[in-house]
Each structure stands twice: as structure tokens, then as C-alpha cells.
Design brief:
TAT_signal, disordered N terminus, nine-stranded mixed sheet, globular, signal, 557 residues, SBP_5_dom, ABC transporter substrate-binding protein
């Protein structure tokens, strides 16, 4: 996922003084009356893949989620910010497969079973689950998937997701406008789809879990036109019944055609946006909101941490498959020398940086996320060693190193940049901090005009190739530092062709070791999502790849 895409820009800064007054003033507010009745039942219904649902549960009722901003679009091929992503992954659409458990891989959802894969790893045969219907009642067929995926590749749509399909034979030609149909897609019958890849790609099963791969009805896209982005028709657990830009809210009702019968447990979901994050936290505590879509604001970390009853009652840290690091321009006359980049890693106290994020990050000075499942990690993390940093800088002839650290002023980077400035000064490196707008920073990063810059990556496929292939491969779409290492490229390519996840992870572990020895940046943390929900919301789960699981949460009577 491109880091410039905003769906995982979770936490933005707010002034702490006024917010602290808000928190102090709201603890005794009364819960507003709920619109829908909640009734008790003894056993949970069947749920799709994902975190488990223990019983007993309650059914009915309403959940209200707050957002800072309106989503770009509810069309999964167009919207990519966090608001749009949660609607696509958790509310309106059901892909062929979904990630299982809290960290597992693909499991059948709209598909009847896992795909059959040919011996050479290039041909996937997908059997559709009978009975899957769109919100308006029509049965889903293999033709709907072919049409949907071809639409993602349409150059006129300019979907952010198109590159995820480029491993399919003929997909790139469609995206380049050279063909109208994808040669690697074939309908065998109404409930069987064949996909031919250009080469084996172990990440492809994970791609089939992503929301833009869920079937869409082309007749509804044509009928609704531009309105499809606000009132889309899908196959997910909820149906959108209202989208009101003036009142800044969208309403979703339980889908009677949902394939996982018995869920969702709640009857109604309501999204409200245009609410400052400090006000969201106040409304969460007063009962006006049940869930904060963007989580607890990291800028309010000092207040939240100073009130244990607030933190323990409302905030739940959830580990993500994502990392945060300080990007470096490897084309810089000094930063192109690996010894200089090693020196900056030795000059950085990652434990201190981690503490400044108030739980949204945890110290992990390695390129790949800390909690990757079944990953045989061999890379050695850097430890702060000022003498070693100075020695490496001297060897590289960079004792007069001057660098510009650009950031967009968002939490926690405003404070982190100041601490990094102090830490690197001890090694003899002078850092100038250059705050700018987010759009200006994005442009400066993309054009190679930043010496030092903030980076973070939230994986939407639980395989380190999602991070490494985009950020550290020489041709990666988000390789803003211009990093190039032929040995790393070769390992990533071999890992993608692997037949088993064990082989893939073994190769990726070697790639991580090389990335640590020849660092493209200063790695310091793995990411957490600071989920914020009212305790009346039960069985709340979230995965970074998937978002909040609205299909299986329930509310106390």
C-alpha cells in the first residue's frame, strides 16, 4: 500500500490545552437514547473468517462511529483513506477470501473453498460459494468478478489498486489501454473462475482478500454513475440506506442477503464525520459515539495516559502489521554511503522515540513489523552507540554532515524530529527541521527533495513483500529514498515465486538482514492501532489489513 495514500494515516495532532478541558468536562455526561432495541440471544451466529466470536451475544441495536473527514469514496477501487477502507473491508463488500483469526492468512468467504493452484503456481481455479447475492438481490457469478477486476484496471478509472492485479496475465496491457479484456481471466461456468498469472506470485491469494477484488454489479455502476461512490451496491454485511453530505453522516442497515447468516448482530451502523478528534473522544465518553474510526488521538496521549480509568475503559492497543521509520535520500552525496546510514542508526535511541508515541508505536529497530507470524527473524537490530556512529562518519568522510528533516507537523513527528535532532547532534550531525503541509511533503518526497523524512507503512497483505516490494525494491512504487540493492531485489523476486510461505519467509528474513546491514532508513518501531470504543460495544476486533469487524460486534442491552 502506498504510504502517501491516506487510509492508514491514523492519528493527527490537536492542541492539548483545550482538549484536556474537554476530557475533564465530559465524564459525567448522560448516554443518549438508543434508536433500536437490543435483545439477548444465547449463541452467536456463523461469522466470516477473522477473529472469533464467543457467546452469548446480543442482537439488534445501533453502533455510531465517528470520523474526522468524509471518505474520498465508498467505491473500493477509488477510495483509500481509512474511512473508505473500513467501509470497503468491513461494511459493504465481501471478497472471495478473508484473512482468518487475528493474524492468519486467507480463508474462504465468498469463495466455496481455497483456490486450486497448478503445480507451476501460475493458474488459480476459484470456486464461488453458492447463494452469494448483491444487496439488490441478484446472484453473483464469475462474470461479475471478471468485469469488476477489468474495471479496476481501466485507465479511465485510474484506480489506486490497479497495480495489485499486474501479476495477472494481460492485466498491464488493459491498464495501459492496449486491450479491453484481461487474457488471464476466464469464466469456466457461473460459479468457477480461472486466473492465469504471468509468473508464480505467493502474494496473490492475499490479493484476493482485498476489498477492491470483491464483486460489483456493473448494471448498478452504470445506473448510479458518479453516485456509486456514495451509494454503492455490494455483497457485504450491511446495505447503505442513506448518505447525507449536509448532515455529514451515512447509515447502513443489516443485509438480509448476507452469506454469513446470523450476522451482523447489530441492526444498524451509522457513520458521522466532520468531528475533530478531541471532540470525538468527548462524544465517546458521553455515549454519543460508540467507536472512533481513527482510534485514540496520539496527540492526546499525555492526557489519556494520565487518566488510567480513561485509558483502561476506552482504549485498546492492537498490534498492526506495519512499521515506522525515518526515510533517507540515498542519492544524497553522503547518504549514498552505507556507513553514514549505519551511523545514523547507531546515533538513534529507538526506545526514547517509542515512548514519545504514547502506545501507538513500540520500539522495534528492524525493517519488517515485529509481529509477523511464523517469521524466522535473523536480522540484528541496531543499538545506540555514539562512539560507533562517530567512527563510521569519520571513515566515510562525513564529519561535517548537515541534513534537512522535512515533516508535515502531524503527531508524533513534530516531537520526534526534535528528539532526533538532539540525538544526532551528539554524533556530530546537524539537522535542520523543515515543517511543511502534507501535500508539500508528499511532493517533496516523491521528487527526491528531502534528505530525511517520516515514513510509515501499514500492510494490507500479511506478507512482508507488501512492505519490502513497495518501499525497498529498486522499482518499488513508494521507494521515495531511491534505495537500490541488487541482492535485496533478487531475494524479493525469489520470495515472490516461492511455493510455500515457509520458503517465502526464509528468503524475506535474508532480505531483512541485508536491509539492516545496508539500511535505507533509520528503523525504530512497529505500529499499534489505539482502538477507542465505548465499553458497551462488545467483541470489538480490528486488523490493520481489514479494519474494524462490524459484522461480529454487539452491544450491551
Amino acid at each position: 500500500m502506498k504510504e502517501s495514500l491516506g487510509r492508514r494515516t491514523l492519528l493527527h495532532g490537536f492542541g492539548l490545552g483545550a482538549a484536556g478541558l474537554m476530557l475533564a468536562a465530559c465524564t459525567d455526561a448522560k448516554r443518549p437514547e438508543r434508536a433500536a432495541a437490543v435483545t439477548r440471544t444465547s449463541t452467536p451466529g456463523r461469522t466470516g473468517p477473522g477473529p472469533r466470536t464467543p457467546g452469548p451475544v446480543a442482537t439488534g441495536g445501533r453502533v455510531v462511529t465517528g470520523w474526522s473527514e468524509e471518505a474520498q469514496s465508498y467505491d473500493p477501487a477509488v477510495g483509500y483513506d481509512l474511512h473508505a477502507w473500513e467501509v470497503s473491508t468491513s461494511v459493504l463488500f465481501t471478497p472471495l477470501f478473508q484473512f482468518d483469526g487475528q493474524s492468519g492468512g486467507p480463508a474462504p468467504s465468498a469463495a466455496a473453498r481455497l483456490p486450486q493452484v497448478s503445480e507451476d503456481g501460475r493458474v488459480y481455479t476459484v470456486h464461488l460459494r453458492p447463494g452469494v447475492r448483491f444487496h439488490h438481490g441478484r446472484a453473483v457469478t464469475a462474470d461479475d468478478y471478471i468485469a469488476t477486476w477489468t474495471r479496476v484496471l481501466d485507465p479511465e478509472l485510474a484506480s489506486w489498486a490497479a497495480s495489485y492485479l499486474f501479476s495477472i496475465e494481460g492485466a498491464l496491457e488493459v491498464n495501459e489501454g492496449k486491450r479491453k479484456s484481461v487474457s488471464g481471466l476466464r469464466r469456466i461456468d457461473d460459479h468457477t473462475l480461472e486466473v492465469r498469472l504471468l509468473a508464480p506470485d505467493i502474494t496473490f491469494a492475499g490479493v484476493l482478500c482485498l476489498p477492491f477484488m470483491a464483486a460489483l454489479p456493473m448494471e448498478e455502476i452504470r445506473r448510479l454513475g458518479k453516485d456509486f461512490g456514495r451509494r454503492p451496491v455490494g455483497t457485504g454485511p450491511f446495505v447503505i440506506t442513506s448518505y447525507d453530505r449536509k448532515r455529514q453522516r451515512a447509515v447502513f442497515q443489516r443485509n438480509p442477503h448476507y452469506i454469513w447468516r446470523g450476522t451482523p448482530f447489530i441492526e444498524r451502523l451509522e457513520y458521522r464525520w466532520g468531528i475533530a478528534q478531541a471532540m470525538q473522544l468527548r462524544q465517546l465518553m458521553s455515549g454519543e459515539l460508540d467507536v472512533l474510526g481513527e482510534g485514540a488521538p496520539v496527540a492526546l496521549g499525555p492526557q489519556i495516559n494520565s487518566q488510567p480509568e480513561l485509558r483502561e475503559r476506552y482504549v485498546v492497543p492492537i498490534p498492526l502489521q506495519g512499521t515506522s521509520w525515518i526515510g533517507l535520500d540515498t542519492g544524497h552525496r553522503h547518504l549514498r554511503d552505507r556507513r553514514v546510514r549505519q551511523a545514523l542508526n547507531h546515533a538513534t535511541d529507538t526506545e526514547v522515540l517509542g515512548r514519545l508515541t504514547y502506545g501507538s508505536q513500540e520500539s522495534s529497530p528492524l525493517p519488517f513489523p515485529k509481529h509477523l507470524p511464523d517469521f524466522p527473524r535473523t536480522a540484528r537490530p541496531y543499538r545506540r552507540d555514539i562512539d560507533r556512529a562517530r567512527s563510521l562518519l569519520a571513515e566515510a568522510g562525513a564529519t561535517d554532515l548537515r541534513l534537512r528533516f522535512a515533516h508535515d507537523g502531524s503527531a508524533p513527528w513534530e516531537r520526534l524530529s526534535q528528539v532526533v535532532q538532539q540525538q544526532w547532534r551528539e554524533a556530530g550531525v546537524e539537522v535542520t527541521i523543515d515543517p511543511m503541509s502534507k501535500s508539500a511533503l508528499d511532493q517533496a518526497m516523491a521528487s527526491g527533495q528531502c534528505d530525511v523524512f517520516p515514513r510509515h507503512w501499514y500492510m494490507i497483505n500479511p506478507n512482508a513483500l507488501d512492505l519490502a516490494g513497495n518501499c525497498f525494491a529498486s522499482d518499488g512504487s513508494s521507494n521515495y529514498g531511491g534505495y537500490a540493492n541488487e541482492a535485496v531485489d533478487a531475494l524479493l523476486a525469489e520470495a515472490r515465486r516461492s511455493q510455500t510461505m515457509a520458503d517465502c519467509n526464509r528468503l524475506l528474513a535474508r532480505a531483512e538482514q541485508l536491509l539492516s546491514e545496508d539500511p535505507p532508513g533509520v528503523f525504530f518501531s512497529s505500529l499499534n492501532f489505539l482502538a477507542a470504543r465505548n465499553p458497551r460495544v462488545r467483541n470489538y476486533h480490528m486488523r490493520g489489513e481489514t479494519g474494524s469487524y462490524y459484522d461480529r460486534l454487539w452491544v450491551s442491552p
